[in-house]
Every structure is written in C-alpha cells, then in structure tokens.
Amino acid sequence: MTPFCAAIDWGTSSFRLWLMSEAGTVIAERQSDEGMMRAAAIGFDVVLERHLAELGVAEELPVVMCGMVGARQGWQEAGYLDTPADLAAIIGKARKIIDAYPRDVRVLPGIAQREAGAPDVMRGEETQLLGLVAQGIGKGLVCMPGTHSKWVRLKGGKVDGFSTYMTGELFAMLSRHSILSAAVDQAAAVSADAPGFLDAARTALADPQAVSNLLFQLRAGQLLGFAPPNEGAARLSGLLIGLELAGVAVRHGTLRDVVLVASGGLCDLYRAVLECQDLTVHVCDASEAVRRGLWRAASTFWTAEERQEHAR
Amino acid sequence: MTPFCAAIDWGTSSFRLWLMSEAGTVIAERQSDEGMMRAAAIGFDVVLERHLAELGVAEELPVVMCGMVGARQGWQEAGYLDTPADLAAIIGKARKIIDAYPRDVRVLPGIAQREAGAPDVMRGEETQLLGLVAQGIGKGLVCMPGTHSKWVRLKGGKVDGFSTYMTGELFAMLSRHSILSAAVDQAAAVSADAPGFLDAARTALADPQAVSNLLFQLRAGQLLGFAPPNEGAARLSGLLIGLELAGVAVRHGTLRDVVLVASGGLCDLYRAVLECQDLTVHVCDASEAVRRGLWRAASTFWTAEERQEHAR
C-alpha cells in the first residue's frame, strides 16, 4: 500500500506514529518515549526524521500531528480554539511547522476553556474527539482517562465544556515521591479485579473531602496491619479514580451514560469504577480515535492528486 | 548552668536538640537536617554524639528523644500507645536504646489509632501534646500542621482520636514533581497575606471534592492569563490547607475553637485560614510544646540525685 501520510500523537512523555494509506488503513507504526520533554532536548525534527527514515518514508510524505508538540514548550505553538469549540474547526486552525523545514508538517491546535472560575486546556484529546465525531459520536459526556484525565461535554459535534483531573500524575507522584512509596509496589500493574481497588474507589466517592486523610490511611493501615501491602497500588489507584468521579459529579452534574475513550488496563479500571456506580459505559478505543481524527485532518489537508502535483 | 539532660525532637528530615537545665531552661541548642532518613545512613549514634561533643557534654548526660527516631526504620522501635491514650503514660513506655551504648538514651513511643475505618499513627506529636497537658491544656481540638498535619481530639489529658492529612507533603511533591512546578515559584515563602492564598483556601473549602480539578486549574489559569504566575505557590498552599480543613470537618464535626500548635510561617498560614472560617484560635508554639514534653519525661526518668549516684 502507498503511504498517504504519517499521523502522530506526540504527548508530553510519549511519541506514537502511524503510517496511513489514503483509505485510513494503518500500514506501519512506531512508538517511543521521546515525548515533548525528551524530544525538546534531542530536537523535534531529529526525532521525527529518524522514525520516518526507519520506515523508509519518502521525504515529501506529509505529516499531521497533535498533542503537546503544539504547546508553547513544544515544536511550534499551535494555539487553542475556545469553547464552545466546533471540532471540525480544529482542522482549519492547524499550524504548519515553519523552521525552513522542507517536509509539509502540520500541528492541530488544542482547545481552551477561558472561564475565570474554570480555566482549562487540552492538547491531543481534541483530536480523539474529532475522531469520535467522524465516527458519529457527536454528543454526550466523554471520559478520557490519563495523566491528566479530561471529562468533556460534547454537543452537536462541539466541545461545550470540559474539566481536567490530575489523576494519573497524582498516582505516579504519590507512588514515587511520597511516604506512600513504602505502601505501593511501583512495579505492580493494577487490574480492575485487584483486591482493594473498587473498595478504595467507593471509599473516595463516599468521602472525597477527606482524600488527604484517606491517602495517609493507606500507609497507616499497612503499618497497623489493616491492609495487606500488596493492595497498596490498587487502593491508591481506586482512591484517585474515585476522587476524580466525585469531582466530575460536582462539575458536570449527575452522571448516567459515559463514553469512555481509553485503551488497555486504564480502560478496564475506569470501566469497572463507572459500572460499579451503575453508569452505562460506551467504550471507544483511544488510539483508534486519535488515528481517526488525525486521518480526518490529513484527508482535508491533502488529496492524493495534490500530493502528486507537489511531488513533481 | 549545669545541664540536666539533652532533649531531642528527631523527625523524618530534621534533627533538633536542646541542652536543658533541671528547671527546664534551655542552655544551648542545635539543629540540622540529619533527620531519620540521613541519620540512618550515617549512624544515629554518630550523629547524636557529634552534636553532643560540639556542645562539650559529659558522656553520662542522659538523652530523651521523640519522633521518627523511634519508628521501625529509626534507631530503635519504640512502639505505640493505643487511642484513647493517656499522654502521661507515654513516659512509662519509653524504650532505652540498647546497642551496648554506654549513655542513657531513651525514646518516647508514638500513638496508634487501631480502627479499621480510620487507621492512623503519630510520632513526635504525642510529645508536643504531653507538653500541652503539662501546660494545663488537656482538652479541645488540636491542629498540628506540618508535612503530615495532625488533628487531635484531647479529652482529660488523653488523645481520644486523631486524623492525619498529607498537606505539607502534597505541597512539596506537587510543587517539585508535577506539572504544577511550572506554576509555582519553589523559592517563594508563602505568607498569609499573599494574594491568592485565602481565596484559594476558600475555593477548596467550597469545592473540596473537585480538588484534583482545582489543582489543574492552577496551571491552566496561568496559561490562559487568569492568574498571575507569582500567585502559584500561595494558591497551591491555600488549596491544600482548605482541603485539609474540609476533611477535618468530615472527621471531627463542626469546628469552633482550635488549639493551633505550630511555629513561624506555617502558624500564620493556618491561623489566617482558621480565622477566615470564624474559628477561635489559641496558638501554642510547637517547639516550646515538644521541649516541655521532653523535659517532663526527663524529669520523671531522672533526678539530679540519681544522676550523681550514677556518675559515681
């Protein structure tokens, strides 16, 4: 198959590239930990070109990207669309990397919520959402778990409003850099049926105001023999996801149906917590969503004919 | 003045020693960052003897200590008294350092709350509380801010119950190891009248369930120009102290009078937040309290006559 474009989800700490055909099929893919942080030190163009060279890609193949690569500290700032933001409009607001760079490389903008009482920003999730819209999911409450989990109200293909929760980052930080490092097995992958996980989520949902005390209890409970040490990671994860959900209820009102955009283990964890709260969960794969969004943008930017023109 | 004993508050990250007369007067003092963590690597006896040698202290001078030095990872485990815990009883439960160590060195135990729903532990604060009781403060709700803030219900000289909040550790961790490091000037000392401090405390008190979102807003608010970057540290501190207070209200019911055991800047911050909630605050200096508690224990262990006996 002839590659049509390279589509890249370039986040803070991860890099993911798909070589795609004009029909949106994945021809090849690459993944690394050269996220914005590491790539800024190495050089964004160096990282990108190395991955493309590994795939034997022609130098005129265009590239579409989303994520933190478009932040101020990224390769080139791609700005924000403001809420309420029409997702289709992010395509028109893409920024070309200037840099005297021969390849046609474009970055999609993020979305900003410029409200004094609820300032918020996203970069990367808007492209997943564009993918959902392309798939016919244009409304509802969308949960996008991660380092900074986003909860988004979609309405008529627009982002009406959203809120971010530091769940993933709190988990990493607390398990590595706090007294809880003694209570959490950092190598353990938490699964949804791990003992203590749902129990901790329910505890945080019942008592979210006291989260700073509940966190300390993780350690004290182990010291005093109330909780087995091997439940530490599952309980910490449960507490933080429960806290997130309690916050979402404050921000977005009573929850019923949730579109969960996630992959792998994280998807299972959120699904379990949402379902134990009697919510109806519709799962969409996060990688598929972002790929679909990127491809949608690429299809708008470039057609096969235009590219043949360009190549001549 | 003749030294009667050395009194030491030996915490996780700090070491503080007072040379005291039999009447409880401070003759000299020393302070360092050789807390339990660093001292465990150097050797607790090495650290202690170096400080005592600097003060020219006789080798038979006895030493009374409290804090994490008595934890399992400390010099010698000193166990816990269980709640409800009579504070005077911690003196009788002190452990002598064995080690074939010639000097008479004793560690006061901590207090444990062995309740399945609210497991908790303290080490060091019980000695401050013993100091309060010696001063005639034997009842009330006591706030002891710090890395792990403790809120204690005192009743008839006993610790009836308590709860711990990770406020100080969360502040340090978030300002150093999270995305908020970009939003917080780590060198800035927060003062109670810093712009944004009380406002953030009120926000967290009104909306504690959403704390994980409020934290992210610190960063997003700066990115979008809603909050000046120089307010970051004050706002983070205000949010976390507000969250602590919201948790305390869940754990200990409506607050009215609070005995605030603290020193320096931290004392001012807590006082300001408590007073803006219309609480009556009685301040006791934390260093004075722990010194008084240690001296009270020393006076029970040793009398000048006994020590002259021993020296012969």
Can I get a quick summary?
Chain A is α/β, with parallel strands linked by helices. In chain A, the strands form three sheets. In chain A, strands 3-2-1-4-8-7 form a six-stranded mixed β-sheet, with helices on one face. In chain A, strands 6-13-12-11-14-15 form a six-stranded mixed β-sheet, sandwiched between helices.
Low-confidence stretches of chain A: none
- Give me the oligomer status: homodimer
Order of strands, main sheet of chain A, comes to 3-2-1-4-8-7
- Mean pLDDT reading of chain A: 94
Fraction of residues in helix of chain A: 25-40%
List the helices and strands and how they pair.
Two copies of one chain form a homodimer.
Chain A: E1 5-10, E2 15-20, E3 26-32, H1 36-42, H2 44-54, E4 63-66, E5 80-82, E6 85-86, H3 89-92, E7 95-96, E8 105-107, E9 110-113, E10 120-122, H4 125-134, E11 140-144, E12 149-155, E13 158-165, H5 167-177, H6 197-206, H7 211-223, H8 232-252, E14 257-262, H9 264-276, E15 280-285, H10 286-301, H11 304-311
Parallel strand pairs in A: 1-4, 4-8, 5-9, 11-14, 14-15
Antiparallel strand pairs in A: 1-2, 2-3, 6-13, 7-8, 9-10, 11-12, 12-13
Structural notes for this entry:
2 copies of one chain form a homodimer. With 312 residues, the first copy, chain A, is an alpha/beta fold. Chain A has 2 domains: 5-165 and 287-311, Nucleotidyltransferase, domain 5 (2-Layer Sandwich); 167-278, Nucleotidyltransferase, domain 5. Helices cover 40% and strands 23% of the residues of chain A. The first copy, chain A, is built from 11 helices and 15 strands. Chain A has helices spanning 36-42, 44-54, 89-92, 125-134, 167-177, 197-206, 211-223, 232-252, 264-276, 286-301, 304-311, and strands spanning 5-10, 15-20, 26-32, 63-66, 80-82, 85-86, 95-96, 105-107, 110-113, 120-122, 140-144, 149-155, 158-165, 257-262, 280-285. In chain A, strands 3-2-1-4-8-7 form a 6-stranded mixed β-sheet, covered by helices on one side. In chain A, strands 6-13-12-11-14-15 form a 6-stranded mixed β-sheet, sandwiched between helices. Chain A has a 3-stranded mixed β-sheet with strand order 5-9-10, with helices on one face. In chain A, helix 4 (125-134) packs across helix 10, helix 5 (167-177) runs antiparallel to helix 8 (232-252) and helix 7 (211-223) runs antiparallel to helix 8. The first copy, chain A, is globular, with a radius of gyration of 21 Å. The relative contact order of chain A is 0.14. The interface between A and B is large, with 46 and 46 residues.
